[in-house]
């Protein structure tokens, strides 16, 4: 170890993130942070491409996306010291765009006001430890099923992005054209990444993404960048910055909107925290997540800030699992991811060339790693096994972590209650099961 590196690890970084205590080092955390960024960098372009349909300018939302991701992820790093990254949530941005603005006719400024209100509600629930209590109340079976379900969900996204599976009007899903350039690049990348990890190469997932991106050039999958450095033009951010309309949101009658933002964000975040934490070994012997309230606070404050910056709800990203799989254990991983988002402002031409086919292998492999949680479920006890299966498959089948968790809570409570094992279930699980059932009935 070089003297400068040793000094760094003994100094600020060690005092702040307790690297040795967590069995990690700066190099591992840096690689993990870059890996997380590479698997979620798509949000820089995908979020504004969805939200622009509300009339919000693409460039303005792109800057808002980066700014909110940086702030929320830095909060996660320093408040909770966990390797989790945050950004505007997929699914939540679609609900914001298609259901609230286009569907209900609500101005986007008012919709941002609704996001702000939901963020305030999240924060109140965090300070009153309601959200932390929910995490602690989740039974071990559902925690393991959530982790496995997220693994399936991530792997499914990887298969979709790799073009291994495609929509089919007769069977819903069908086999893609495996000889297409994108599928070939993804298949080669999956093989290379798998071999690197099997041989114990440090940073194997990140190397796999970079090598796959390079392989995609002759296949025409990776487009050559139009330049390298592009100086930020923050004037493009002005059309959405601080344009939220809180008063308009309060006068609109937004209970159902806030209810939807509240449930989806809360349980997407809870599911991600539980699933990724189980994979990373962050849960204690009782299955609880230490410093959970601080991690949840970073999430809720990120949502509030995002509404001011000009983007829908910010949430903890399931792609954080890729960084955890690469060895990330502390907030330094999150801090590096945030730094990469800052750097992306100057290197947008380079960031934008990484194709889905290059990140798909990483998602598939991370999904395989997270499936290990399924072995901790008692499959001989059907009152445990059936809800676990419903929870796990509900996520990829409905393309929603929150839906899978809802199915799990409802089925677990009902089966336990009517099989004479109702006393084994925490009362809060019953309350949440009822609320989930109301959500499905009320919001359709």
Mean pLDDT score: 87
Assign a percent range to the helix content.
55-70%
Instruction: Please give the domain count.
Output: 1
Question: In order across it, which strands form the biggest sheet?
Answer: 1-4
Kindly name the structural category: mainly alpha
Which stretches are poorly predicted, pLDDT < 50 over at least 5 residues?
none
Q: How much β-strand is present in the residues?
A: under 5%
Number of helical stretches of at least 4 residues? 21
Largest sheet: 2 strands, antiparallel
> Which word captures the global form?
globular
Radius of gyration: 21 Å
Could you give the distance between the termini? 58 Å
Could you state the order of secondary-structure elements as H and E? HHHHHEHHHHEEHHHHHEHHHHHHH
Give the total of beta strands.
4
List keywords for this structure.
single chain; 444 residues; mainly alpha; two-stranded antiparallel ribbon; 21 helices; 4 strands; 68% helix; 3% strand; globular
